[in-house]
Amino acid sequence: MSAASSSVNPTRGGAAVEAIDLRKAFGPIRAVDGIDLAFEPGRIYGFLGPNGSGKTTLIRLLAGLARPTSGEARILGTRMPDRPILGKVGYMPQSEALYPDLSVGENIGFFATLQGARGEAAIDRALDLVELGERKGTPVLELSGGMRRRLSLAITLVHEPPVVFLDEPTVGVDPALRVQFWSHFRQLADAGTTILVASHVMDEADRCDELVFIRSGRVLARGTGDELRAKAATDNLETAFLQFAGLDDQGRPLASDGQAAAGTVAE
Amino acid sequence: MSPRRVAAVARRIAEGFRRDRRSLGLLLVAPLAVVALLGWVLRDQQQASVEILVVNDAGPVGDRIVAALKDASNQANDGTGIGTADSRDAAVAALRNGQADLALILPSTLLTDVAAGQSPVITVISEGTNPAAESGAFASLQGLLRTLAGSLAPPGATAPVVPTIQRETVYLSPDADQLDVLAPVFLGLFAYFFVFVLTGISFLRERVGGTLERLLATPVTRGEIVLGYSIGFSIFATLQVLILTLYVLGRVDVPAIGPIGAFTLGLGVVTAGSPILAFAVALLLAVGAVNLGIFLSTFARTELQIVQFIPIVIVPQILLGGVFWSIDRLPTVLQAIAHVLPVTYAVDALREVMLKGSDLATTAVQTDLLVLAGIAVVFVLLAAFTIKREVA
What we know:
In chain A, 28% of the residues lie in helices and 23% in strands.
């Protein structure tokens, strides 16, 4: 795991993805509440936070699937939402998002065309990668949950996008496959792909180059796993998260002002 | 607008259909079954026998009328039976228990009225709960009465000559039945309603299943999605209209084979105009239906809720669109509503073309096509707006 360049690039010059004072409100609920982040090419970033913390909304804003209430999201320098730039983006939604009546090949073929991938070779390569090459003619209806997850990932990566958003990619995926997924993510990152992963599984966090702790639509802390643990004086990321969130190890609010712990540890 | 992406969306719809046998059946077989059933019901109806009871209070002249009625019904041989009852009460009792369909009361003043040059009043009593059947029975009674005008002449006077009425029509033939008028309309209606329900469900699945989210994370535009959907469903609407047109216009007599008796396939409706123009009308209506389905799917969260749109969206269109009742006869308020429904214009255009033989040079057909195209454009815009709303 590379911990060499330790922090999110503050200069924004070569950033693949940026959030600039990004905000999104649904009525009175502030799902994303003023987030400033920049993500460099060729690295894996993990968004960690409990359900309802705003991870998915943040990813949807960054990917241009939702319009921010204020602020800006940029991909490769282009302000989102922007349709043409989406050909350079891979997005794996949290839900299955497949056509159950269609076969594996028809599903990936359809999205490959829309995403701008050309040729059957790209499709075969993506399917082989997730070990579904033999299943091309099988209707999705007949696939197991894990296989559907794999197909979903293959669709996300079929057009070899330089920027990839993964919303809880390993939910319902068995441990062996999960290791494969992550080793593949690492290969992509080494080849220059920017990967942003939302997760609430802390044990996946150490596979990321950098982590962003999110709670109530705000960034609690960011840095490498080691930096965050050192800052919180614990060897457990979960405890670190709770501490940054101002909660004790039972998840109860601390007596002292928890906000004091929030901030950027990477500075 | 990328043709590749539009084609991909259309192909996706077609591939989904190919594997979804039930929807395919709903689209292609169900309308055929309904039209065939309708044809069977309307064409091969049992000749209902009409039992008429005469209550004769008029004396000998009444006896002559009864005898003449019996003669006339024997000659007509249409299953009308003439009987007599002793009193009005007995006749009403027979109507109550279903032994008779009509009671005819010949008044005691019959002869004196005729002698005085006054028109005598003959009372006809019917059961009253089935107006349609009773008006049929009433029509056969009137037919009989026309032929016996002579027996009502005062004794000694010469019987008046009753002219025979020969019917002709401008369009179709006098023998045309309800089916000849309904069948052309059904060509368009089925495509409209089935396509509406299927697109509604299909698009709802896109939203609920998350595939719309995945679509919106690609460079595909709203216009491409709407166009792809329209083309994809139009392929199947075309197939449906084609099959229905063949069945409605065609007619094949199948001879008896073994235990199966002889039967007729197809309705053999005669079209006066171009089937291709009728087909174009049906297709234009179906494109509107695709986009109406996309638009209304926003207001549903489950497939059941799409089905719940049927009584709200579809039934009023059948009632007001001029399918069964002419729009001119609707109350003013309902007429105004009818004039914004696409079905109204499609029904009119289909009848103009298939019954009256109108073509594109006819103002009525031009107006209908123009309005249908306009409504389709409005639905396309609404559908595109719906998809935009997804990017909230």
